[in-house]
Amino acid sequence: MSLSAGIILATLASVLVAAFVQGVTGFGFGMVAMALLPLFTGAKSSSVLIGLLSLVTTSCVLYSVRRSFRGRDFLFPVVGMFAGVPFGVYALVMLDENLIQRLVGIAILIACAQMVIPSLRMRRAIPWPWALGAGFTSGILGGAFGIGGPPVIAYASMQEWEGARYKAMLCSFFATSNLYRVIIMAGAGLITGDILLRFAVASPALLLGVFLGIRAFGRLSRDAFRRVVLVTLLVLALTLLVL
Fold first, then answer.
1. Cα–Cα distances in Å, from 62 out to 75, 167, 219?
2. Higher pLDDT pick, 146 / 193
3. Which of 30, 145, 150, 240 has its CB 3.0 to 4.6 Å from that of 111, i.e. a possible disulfide?
4. Global confidence as pTM
5. 62-68 long-range contacts, Cβ below 8 Å, gap at least 24?
6. Which is higher by pLDDT, 165 or 160?
7. Lowest mean pLDDT among 1-5, 34-38, 216-220
8. What is the Cα–Cα distance from 27 to 131, expressed in whole angstroms?
């Protein structure tokens, strides 16, 4: 299937921006990409494409902070995620595409609300059931919409971790969940030739965005950058809800 020049340019720009956000913050590719791509392509096909692209972005960013990785940080969230993803993929197959677009808009608004709440700092380890619950909820959102970030980001923000460890935990979680999701989507027949073509077209912009984001990490004020991301996501989420 051929792609128009307009669709190609819009896809490249969307993926570049989303990958840059992921490279800087360690999260956000799915939220930004899923806010942009459905504006000119189908929400369902965009969700599948984002699953493939996210696997690449999270793996690249994780490699950049691999020395800060701690297996115990992501163990329980990943166990919960494995249980949640199949429910999300089932919803992706069964739900109407317009409904998916509206639900994505709502999910992004929830993520924005979570981002403006000051991070909670705990003086002791958070009980493991909370980690399981965050992973399970993220698995459902990630399996259905490719934006499984908000619950596990909220969980990670409650920990007293330095930036690199925080980023490594999120990327290790998302890399694992994205791989799991891609395997399930492939088994469900959702990864078509058209999706693979769009993946190939978007890959150069993806790698460039991740590279620029990783280089910018530590040089930019992440608080200021997240405020820009927040405003952008709010506008895009509202757009998805009203179109």
1. 16, 8, 18
2. 193
3. 150
4. 0.74
5. 62/168, 62/171, 62/172, 62/175, 64/214, 64/217, 65/26, 65/164, 65/165, 65/167, 65/168, 65/171, 66/168, 67/164, 68/162, 68/164, 68/165, 68/167, 68/168
6. 165
7. 1-5
8. 17
Torsion of CA 140, 145, 146, 147, to 10 degrees: -80
Over the chain, what is the mean pLDDT?
Answer: 81
What is the predicted pLDDT for the residue at 142? 75
Kindly state the tokens that stand for 51.
């699953």
Token pair, residue 126, equals: 């958070």
